[in-house]
Write a structure and sequence with these properties.
three-stranded antiparallel β-sheet; binds copper (II) ion; Alpha-Beta Plaits; 4 helices; 3 strands
């Protein structure tokens, strides 16, 4: 019932063209593997205030987000997605979040490794 009222209000607003939103479409790469990743990534992006839709493509690894530029930005969306374990161009997921991902979702991270701790002193 509540949803019906909300969608009615949305429809009226849409229909009358009363909108102060600065709708913008942002597209950027998000690392991931499977359908589970897709659900997780899209959910993370949609949870960001100001995001109206999010669609991640499993094949191209591109996330397309429709957002209100007066409320949020691609940077904020990427940060939110990274918080769920998926690397984006601007924000890298924390190792602990990444490690908690299901096995099938552990996307290849070798291209973005930062193992600078390894000084190559392995000979004794
Ligand atoms: Cu996955």
């Amino acid at each position: 019932m509540k949803n019906k009222i909300l969608s009615f209000v949305a429809l009226v607003l849409f229909g009358t063209g009363v909108t102060f939103a600065q709708e913008k479409t942002e597209k950027f790469e998000v690392k991931g593997n499977c359908g589970m990743c897709e659900t997780r990534i899209e959910k993370a992006a949609q949870n960001v205030k100001g995001v109206s839709s999010a669609d991640w493509d499993k094949k191209t690894k591109m996330l397309e987000v429709k957002l209100d530029a007066s409320v949020t930005s691609a940077d904020k969306v990427q940060k939110a997605v990274a918080a769920f374990g998926h690397d984006t161009p601007l924000h890298k997921a924390g190792d602990s979040v990444y490690n908690k991902l299901p096995g099938c979702c552990k996307y290849d991270r070798t291209s973005s490794k930062k193992d600078s701790e390894d000084h190559g002193n392995h000979q004794h």
